[in-house]
Amino acid sequence: MIANDAELKGTQQRIAYFEELLAKMRITAPPETFPLMAGGFRAEIERMQEEVLEYLTRHASQPPLAQTPDKTGQPLPSTTP
Q1: CA-CA distance, 11 to 5, in Å (whole number)?
Q2: Can you give the pTM of this predicted structure?
């Protein structure tokens, strides 16, 4: 989850980078392998976009959402120091 504006900016830059990769792959990748290659990037872009929207639709005075637990029920480690 995005916890601050610096992480927001980093996530937005990562989304833009992945979108640029997809734009290049549309032209350079073989048509038969492109759907498989693009699928992973698309899923990651959608996941990051969801995080961005979650962050942007919470008022600045609200604390960030808690980390989602992993499969064992343990919270995921924070990406912020």
Answers
A1: 10
A2: 0.74
Output the CA–CA distances (angstroms, integers) from residue 70 to 16, 27, 39, 51, 60, in the order listed: 27, 37, 23, 17, 27
Please write down the long-range contacts of 40-45, taking CB distance under 8 Å and 24 or more positions apart. 44/18, 45/15, 45/18, 45/19
CB 10 within 8 A of CB 1: no
**Residue 64 buriedness (CB in 10 A; 0-12 / 13-18 / 19+):** middle
Judged against a pLDDT cut of 60, whether residue 79 lies above it is answered with no
Instruction: Tell me which residue has tokens 């990769």.
Output: 21
Do residues 8 and 51 touch, judged by C-beta distance below 8 A?
A: no
In the block, which residue shows the tokens 């610096």? 6
